[in-house]
Design brief:
Layout: H1 5-14, H2 20-26, E1 33-38, E2 42-48, E3 55-62, H3 66-80, E4 84-89, H4 99-114, E5 119-123, H5 127-137, H6 143-167
Parallel strand pairs: 1-4, 4-5
Antiparallel strand pairs: 1-2, 2-3
Helix pairs in contact: 5-6
């Protein structure tokens, strides 16, 4: 596929991932954001309220093929009138990016090819283990019940971290 210079520039702008501050500045006030926890088999989805103060678990998307997964995310965005995405970025403990982080970046890049959606990444190190610990210790959920809620709860954890970081 060959693009002229203007088309390449337009495409680069469409796939740019924003900082959290730029995401906040580029999305209309009074609109919620969605948070995504991109797992190997599922996508946990959370939503903020319209004031972007509180994140709540929303949905779990069972991954099939990328196009279907992307359309499921976009359908949830449209249904909630969400203006942006916060995607968990699973960094290694030393802050470097491994294959899972690269996969998350590829998801964002490919999603942008379907629709230019403002999105930002949020460090999600230890989010799933923190959520697992909470679900076991505080809610005493068994393994089967945890499996049904951990990914969307992790998405809420990721989104809440981003919202709190913006307020700090």
């Amino acid at each position: 596929m060959h693009f002229d210079r203007a088309a390449r520039q337009s495409y680069r702008q469409a796939v740019t991932v924003l900082s959290l501050e730029d995401l906040a500045a580029s999305t209309p006030p009074g609109t919620p954001w969605l948070g995504l926890d991109l797992g190997e088999k599922t996508i946990g989805v959370a939503a903020s309220d319209v004031t972007r103060m509180i994140a709540s678990p929303l949905s779990l998307i069972r991954k099939t093929k990328f196009t279907d997964d992307a359309h499921a995310v976009l359908k949830l965005m449209d249904g909630r009138k969400a203006s942006g995405l916060v995607i968990g970025l699973p960094l290694n403990m030393d802050g470097s990016e491994g294959p899972r982080a690269q996969s998350c970046r590829a998801f964002a890049r490919n999603l942008q090819r379907i629709r230019a959606v403002p999105c930002a990444f949020q460090d999600e190190r230890l989010s799933t283990s923190a959520v697992e610990r909470f679900l076991i210790e505080e809610l005493d959920l068994n393994r089967k019940r945890r499996a049904n809620v951990v990914d969307r709860t992790a998405a809420a954890w990721i989104l809440q971290g981003a919202l709190d970081r913006l307020r700090a």
